[in-house]
Amino acid sequence: MQSALIVGKKICSSLLLRNWVRPLSAASDKLTNVEVNDKTGFAKLTMNRPPVNGLNLDLLRDLHQSIQDIEKNKCRGLILTSASNTIFSAGLDIMEMYKPDQERLKQFWTALQDVWLALYGSAVPTAAAINGHSPAGGCLLAASCEYRVMLPKYTIGLNETQLGIVAPKWFMSTFRNVLPRRIAEQALTQGKMFTSDEALKIGLVDELAATKEEALLKCEKFFASFAKTDPIARYLTKKQLRHNDIKELLDEKVQDVENFVLFVNQPSVQKGLGLYLESLKKKAK
Ligand SMILES: CCCCCCC/C=C/C(=O)SCCNC(=O)CCNC(=O)[C@H](O)C(C)(C)COP(=O)(O)OP(=O)(O)OC[C@H]1O[C@@H](n2cnc3c(N)ncnc32)[C@H](O)[C@@H]1OP(=O)(O)O
Fold first, then answer.
1. Does the structure's ipTM exceed the value 0.95?
2. Ligand 1 atom closest to 136 (CA)
């Protein structure tokens, strides 16, 4: 795993946080980066897997570790964002699902479940500064946060049905937690990708911002809105509201992995994924 915790722009060497600092590998190898503002206590968690922040096993494991670290350090807010100028995250790395190694496939799905459980259930207030396109798994991450600020002229949505695949129940509950049920149902069945303006209109994002810096500031302003609330009361309220969604996955975690493995291995699904990958590569040329 290759993520680095940086406090106040420099690697933290205080006694309090010494255990936190995981060994740094070469900068080009880092998949996530955490910077904590030591004045505000807000953590910025940046995904950095070029070109599109495809969520592969390694990035998911890094994300999970970083979320846990932020939580353990009792940061006062977590802002999820991307190092790319145009892509928040392209969602699941389809290469993990196409002609997969079976053991890795299980680990991959388990890692995604763990990231979702940690982010959706986080005790720390969470926000996403969506500074680029955010399809499928990218949208799942953003929607798991409590607040979203998006830059203009990008797209966001759960587009699974357009790929001929079915988003699992917990993807859908995450959407339903943000959107009115009827809009969620239409969007999910159509596999609709929303422009930033459309996303704002339906409430999939809370605000638009002209730049990433402005988006980060707006996320911080959201955290500041909790200044007069008790953090434990705040967390317990969030926990109760999200309890059923979390419990549903926890109760079926192993079965959910089995369902995923079974689904992915179907010849028709493999064929569809292969064609989709080809179309992405053709488009890139
Ligand atoms: C099978 C059972 C499943 C059960 C449920 C699973 C739920 C699934 C959730 C998911 O997240 S599935 C993934 C859905 N994601 C997408 O549909 C996004 C696809 N990508 C795009 O739309 C675009 O790439 C983009 C994100 C809008 C970026 O466009 P841009 O023009 O900037 O870059 P590209 O030239 O298209 O891509 C660069 C490079 O990256 C490859 N790539 C893009 N997305 C993915 C991906 N999701 N997985 C793997 N690889 C991806 C793309 O092919 C290009 O590769 P190269 O040609 O450079 O090798």
1. yes
2. 11
